[in-house]
Predict the 3D structure of the following.
Amino acid sequence: MDRIVVSGGGRLCGEVQVSGSKNATLALMAAALLAEGETVLRNVPRLRDVDAMLQLLAALGARAGWDESVPGTLRISGDGVDRPEAPYDLVRRMRASFMVLGPLVARFGRGRVSEPGGCAIGVRPVDQHVKGLEALGAKVELTHGYVEATSERLRGARVAFDVCTVNGTQNVMMAACLADGETVLENAAREPEVIELAAALGEMGARIEGAGTSRIEIEGVRRLRGVDHVVSGDRIEAGTLLAAGVATRGDVRLRGVDARVMEATIEKLRETGAEIEVDESGIRARAFDAPRGVDVVTAPYPGFATDMQSQLMAVLCVSAGSSVVTETVFENRFMHVPELLRLGADIGVTGRTAHVRGVPRLMGAPVMATDLRASAGLIVAALAAEGETEVSRVYHIDRGYERIEEKLRSLGARIRRVRESEGEA
Ligand code: EPZ
């Protein structure tokens, strides 16, 4: 397994282009199954998760792949789907795969997708996805670890989600596009990825109102057609890079991301004392002294993103004060804490709350990545730490960050990837 080695303590300075949004891409890839003809997705990041979704689409019988003539471009057509079954070995690697169920049952009348099962950060059930599809008239059975949904023709319904779920909202919204009649989603997720998916579905011919609010209305149509869509910049990658700039008291400028979807992150970093400027050319973060300690509570959008929690915690580890970090979305999202302690951080965890007391400096040490965003937090901490940090199991980070070490090196970081083969003793 590859490792990333960071020689920390230097300031990050410079400008970098943010890649396309992983989470928007995964939902859009599922949506392509709904449309007749070819869907083209541009500005797509080359990530393990995107490749996993491509593998899944191909397993269904769809035509899906990179257009090697145009970097960052996927071409997908669901017309050839003849095996609407998503196998366990693919779904367990990438739970967003579950989002193909709505499109499959809506367009092909049947979908059979393995229960994703839990993951490192939590149980992550899919009961709300099932609730929504059943409300649309699908017959849903849970057998031998698979969720099978069948329906002659879905019909519009009112769906009130018990919890705010991003992929649940997306899954049911996609299915409702081809249902007969009107669907209303209450307590829908408001994330930018929901808005972007609804916009692309609209380009396909769907009739959706209210995306971005907690009430989304969908008027079903008979068919959708493929579109050519440019994926927006990744707000979590952008937030991670800003956090790295602040943690190292640097001066980082980002291009290719819309600051309007990052308000909670920007405001929280400003609260630490960082100077963050937003203009038409992008976002600039500068810090001159140790960050101030701040309190943060993660929440569904537009609250502070749970996907930014570990990266902010890394900043707070080198703050001049104390902070309280409360994780309300997932039940086990502090696995970066033991690794941060190895770097000399001072953190105490009680349930879903972490108390962080800033230390003057972190000291490099070998650490292990446990999940995608925890590993991002470790990289941010390593950049601020004195000395060398080796992060193992970086396949976690490759799931959601495209060429992270290249981007950071372009900002002056002393960081390199040790390939498994060359790294073996
Ligand atoms: C999406 O996951 C993102 N993934 C996650 O990003 C992100 O952390 C999460 O939203 C929250 O913002 C993708 O978009 C591919 P949820 P999702 O359903 O949709 C509970 C990353 O790092 N829940 O909004 O799966 C669930 O247990 C990833 O890029 C149910 O109870 O998350 C959790 O506590 C990690 N029943 C809460 O809702 C359900 O049926 C929010 O989860 C569904 C969810």
Observations:
- The radius of gyration is 21 Å.
- The CA atoms of residues 334 and 341 lie 12 Å apart.
- The chain has two domains: 3-18+233-422, 22-230.
- The pocket of EPZ is lined by residues 22-23, 26, 96, 122, 124-129, 163, 165-168, 189, 193, 306-307, 329-330, 372-373, 400 (CB under 6 Å).
